[in-house]
Amino acid sequence: MADDCLFCKIANGDVPATIVHEDDQVLAFEDISAQAPFHVLVIPRRHISTLNDLQDGDETLVGTLIATAARIAKEHGHAQDGYRTVFNCNRGAGQTVFHIHLHLLAGRNMTWPPG
Ligand code: 5GP
Ligand code: ZN
Q1: Is the pTM of this model over 0.85?
Q2: Which residue, 25, 35, 49, 102, is most buried by CB atoms nearer than 10 A?
Q3: CATH second-level architecture of 6-98?
């Protein structure tokens, strides 16, 4: 738990969120400012500030985030039409909350390249 980390507080239940999945390692909840009809954030319970802070041994955890997003997309009926998964790393990429999170966006057509 990092002091003053919003997503650690959500993971601990100190800040409310609409949870769509949780287990001992990861948590997924609705984004408060959805950028698509379906917009969920998948986070590790353990605090990691950015992708730059991953350490040897975190590969399985990152894979679990991605596999969890894929499973949630499927459960919510978005597998066939498709969905987007995004990690923003640092401010230049638009990261505003410094606890890694995988965006899962679905329910509309996505454009490429992203903004
Ligand atoms: P980033 O810009 O860091 O990649 O994404 C952070 C995301 O967290 C944004 O999409 C933002 O809407 C979301 N967010 C920020 N504060 C809260 C909050 O208090 N609750 C929830 N559920 N999402 C939040
Ligand atoms: Zn945190």
Answers
A1: yes
A2: 102
A3: 2-Layer Sandwich (3.30)
